[in-house]
Design brief:
Layout: E1 8-12, E2 17-26, E3 32-39, H1 42-59, H2 68-77, H3 79-83, H4 86-104, H5 114-125, H6 130-149, H7 180-190, H8 196-205, H9 209-213, E4 220-221, E5 226-229, E6 232-234, E7 249-251, E8 260-263, H10 266-286, H11 307-321, H12 328-341, H13 346-353, H14 358-386
Antiparallel strand pairs: 1-2, 2-3, 4-5, 5-8, 6-7
Helix pairs in contact: 2-4, 4-6, 7-8, 8-10, 8-12, 12-13, 12-14, 13-14
Length: 388
């Protein structure tokens, strides 16, 4: 296939560099694909353009060049589909569609540099949180890692970029966790409400929302006080043209360590007994229309509970009871921080939370752990000072 065109030389103010750009073929969508390289001066860029033309004409282009979108779509529909959970694939696709493709959609995979990516991530950081940027960085790293495996590129440029840290002024979805007294008030107020069992599980186990909604009676031994986390129930993210109400997905927990066995105490055991009685009455009320899912948290007909509905019920509960607003995930932080305040070691808390490693727990709760250590050392200093 003969490719015509001598390309161009231009100065990119954003990067502060000269670039040589030469057409090398067509993408599957019929758009022109380019190969480009940066240079410090205009003269160097002109020489680079000549070299790129020679290289192109010498090697020829036997097939349409692979743009980022073409390769990413192929990877997610083949290899990644066998390796990742459906929810993760959905999240990856969403991040690519919303953040990456508007910038790099028709850019050749082989022409994207670490400088391009660093500039892209920095610009993204100016609009979105560090968490969003790092999620985008993760999916892009996976795409380039696959291209590296297939020898389409010689290295993964994402590796030479840095993850972004949360800034002081960043907004956070998580709110200040409830302290022990707030947890007590919340549990007492929840008795007999639609959030009672869910709230008891969240406060006493630190389980993720998806883990609680996927919990089945077969996972619990109320006589011995043992609960096993074996699955999650996930509500897909909203996507254009897709009704997320059509599908609820049972899946394995987030990581291998998320599959765990927990010991539960009497307050939670009693709450679970009350939930069994509530389901028995609900089943009598709906009769043959009862849906026997075996789940602990259900609707009045026995069907699975959507996370969005459970969250809405919790918000209404907080408002009606005059309790401090907190989102469901922050209850997981409440479990961790309150456990720390009671002197429980970080390794035990990490296992209970099902974190993939102790380092993750340290990264999240290091400040709270250090604050408690400071309180301990200050307490000792005051005690010795008062008894000299």
């Amino acid at each position: 296939m003969n490719v015509k065109g001598t390309g161009t030389v231009y100065f990119d103010k954003h990067h502060g560099k000269w670039f040589a750009k030469v057409p090398i073929g067509k993408t599957k969508s019929g758009l022109t694909a380019y190969k480009r390289k940066s240079a410090s001066t205009k003269r160097e860029a002109q020489l680079l353009r000549s070299a790129l033309i020679v290289e192109r004409d010498k090697e020829g282009v036997r097939k349409p060049a692979s743009t980022l979108r073409i390769f990413a779509t192929q990877h997610l529909q083949t290899e990644a589909r066998l390796e990742l959970k459906r929810r993760t694939l959905t999240d990856y696709t969403y991040n690519l569609e919303r953040y990456v493709y508007p910038v790099f959609e028709n850019t050749l995979l082989t022409s994207i540099t670490s400088q391009d990516l660093s500039a892209f991530f920095s610009e993204l950081r100016g609009k979105y949180s560090a968490s969003v940027v790092n999620q985008v960085r993760t999916v892009m790293s996976r795409i380039f890692e696959s291209a590296l495996t297939h020898r389409i590129i010689s290295d993964n440029p994402v590796r030479r970029t840095k993850a972004h840290r949360k800034g002081v002024g960043d907004k956070s979805k998580s709110k200040q966790p409830w302290n022990l007294e707030e947890c007590r008030s919340g549990l007492e107020a929840s008795l007999g409400t639609s959030v009672e069992t869910w709230l008891h599980l969240a406060v006493f186990t630190g389980m993720r929302m998806s883990e609680i909604l996927g919990l089945m009676w077969g996972d619990i031994d109320l006589k011995t006080g043992v609960l096993q986390v074996r699955r999650t129930l996930v509500e897909p993210q909203k996507q254009k043209g897709v009704n997320r109400r059509d599908v609820l997905e049972f899946s394995t927990p987030k990581t291998k360590r998320s599959e765990r066995t927990l010991s539960i105490g009497e307050p939670l055991i009693q709450a679970l007994h009350r939930q069994q009685e509530w389901q028995r009455v609900a089943k009598e009320n709906v009769g043959v229309n009862w849906i026997d899912t075996g789940l602990v948290i259900t609707t009045k007909s026995g069907s699975p509970m959507y996370a969005s509905n459970q969250g809405a019920q919790f918000r209404r509960f907080l408002k009606s009871e005059g309790l401090r607003s907190i989102n469901p995930h922050s209850l997981r932080h409440s479990f961790a921080i309150n456990s720390l305040s009671l002197g429980i070691d970080l390794a035990s808390i990490s296992r209970a939370l099902g974190h993939a490693s102790l380092q993750i727990t340290l990264d999240i709760y290091a400040r709270d752990s250090n604050n408690l250590q400071d309180a301990a050392t200050e307490g000792l200093a005051k005690w010795f000072g008062a008894n000299q």
